[in-house]
Amino acid sequence: EWNYRTIEQMNAWNDIIAFKSCTVYENIVVYAGYLIGYDNALSDVFVLVNENYGEGPFEYYSESYLFDQWNPLNEDGTAYLYSDETIPLIPYLVIQEIWNSGHMNVIIKEYGTKISWSGTMGITFEVENSPGYSYPAWCQVYPKEFVFDLITHEFSFYDLYVEGANPNDNIPMVPWDLDEDGLVDSFDEDGWPEWVYSWPIYYPEGNKAFHENNFKTAHNDNWMVSVWSDGTKAKRFYDGDDSFAAWEDTPEIAIIISADYGQTWSEPIFLNANETPEMADQIPCYVYPGDVIEIISNNPGNYQGKIHLFYLDDNDFGSYIQGNGLNNGGILTYAALDIEFPDAWGVSIENEEVPQPQITMYNYPNPFNPSTTIQFTTESTENTELIIYNIKGQKIKQYSIFNNQSSIIWDGRDENNLPVGSGVYLYQLRIGGKSKAINKMILMK
Asked: How buried is residue 55: exposed, middle or buried, by Cβ count under 10 Å (0-12/13-18/19+)?
């Protein structure tokens, strides 16, 4: 039997464009994405969470992602990068905001404690006497991973590519100031600020980017793979740089990986017809990874996985339905890529300089009633705590771990010694105030 419901908060979005996706983790149902106002004065991330299998109300969380952006002067200080040519010393108002990120998936990671999705933030500027914001055609759009913590109810994001000096400081990377010292990194021969180009959208024409973006993430526990359809080189030719003529009709598949739940990310590899022999003469668009990463090897020093991909090998560059390219179809294409992951927590064996604490943690029995033993092993228990949360992120019980202690028995009671109800609970091991491991357990009465 089919049924449906409406969601109260969505019903109120009369003058808002909502780009969203949905995911489910056990009893948790989540919608997440972006809200854009028709007047361009709104650029929010949002999450709707229901912890009762979609029955009853959804909790709503949002945060504005409009960031002021400094407008750099040229090398001799006679003009701003963003200004009218006739009055170059009167700067336009510049911001970074979520930009053309409407096609993504949402995942729940870290044992049901965090929501994650990817998209972009772009640099935009306001033109005098023109309503809203105009979008510069200068390849200044950059992929991000957006995260919502179900325990703390905080939003954050990570600069996927290009990274600044602090990619997870919740301040957008500035493409002409990667060392984040407040100064332009370099100037071109004409004295204009130089920046790192990025256009993570396969089609180069700006107005079509609204439709032609695509960001997807797959994960297995701590392993994550993020992919998008990249058009940076095609965009540079489209904008007049003839040195990129070979890329005129050649989009790329960009793939980045993380081995530590997204705390750190690799630089991307790019698959394309010009440099990847297996893709010669192809036009790869709309790439979709499989939901999970196949495990090839999960042994210390030898972590390997396989990511499965589908994409459209277009017969002609451009989307006919958007008024570009021929209406001559394409081929749905499958590919797979073997990936060697670094050791957990992002430290590879070859480059390891600082020994990382080795941690294992589990509870038995699980499910349990009325008590369970939480077992853990770590090289050091100094300044270590074990914290138990309910699925809403509320702290239930906290234990201080003493020297050489390796287990805690939880009797299903809170800090007031009152019994808690049946459900999913999370237990987190923190060392020096930082989360090092988190697992889930189920109390069934």
From this structure: exposed
Number of H helices, E strands in the chain: 2, 25
DSSP state of 179: T
- Rounded to whole angstroms, the Cα distance separating 273 from 249 reads 10
Average per-residue pLDDT in the chain? 88
Compute the distance between CA of residue 295 and CA of residue 312 in angstroms, rounded to an integer. Answer: 25
Q: What is the CA radius of gyration of the chain?
A: 24
Q: Please name which of 194, 230, 233 lies closest in space to residue 213, comparing C-alpha atoms.
A: 230
* Sheet order of strands, 434-443 included: 395-401, 384-390, 423-431, 434-443
Whose CA is closest to 176, among 160, 192, 199?
192
State yes or no: pLDDT of 344 exceeds 70. no
Tell me the pTM: 0.79
- 420, two tokens: 């808690």
Mean of pLDDT values over 372-394: 84
Q: Bridge partners of 128?
A: none
Structure tokens at 98: 């979520």
Q: Which residue type sits at 407?
A: S
Cβ atoms of 217 and 224 within 8 Å: the answer is: yes
Residue 412 has φ and ψ, to the nearest 5°, of 75, 25
Q: Is residue 268 pLDDT above 80, yes or no?
A: yes
The backbone region for 391, taken as left when phi is positive above 0, alpha when psi lies in -120 to 50, beta otherwise, is alpha
Between residues 160 and 355, which one has the greater pLDDT?
A: 160
DSSP state of 279: G
pLDDT (tens digit per residue) in 177-224: 999 999 999 999 999 999 999 999 999 988 888 889 999 999 987 899
| Res. 40 pLDDT band, cuts 50 70 90 | low
Instruction: Give CA separation, 190 vs 75, 83, 186, 196, in Å.
Output: 9, 16, 11, 17
d(CA 351, CA 27): 41
pLDDT of residue 409: 94
Beta bridge partners of 34: 19, 45
Q: Are 27 and 68 in contact (CB under 8 A)?
A: no
- CB of 385 closer than 8 Å to CB of 405: no
User: Are the beta carbons of 29 and 22 closer than 8 angstroms?
Assistant: yes
Tokens 């969601």 belong to residue: 7
Residue 349, C-beta contacts closer than 8 angstroms, at least 6 positions apart: 301, 343
Amino acid (one-letter) located at 104: M
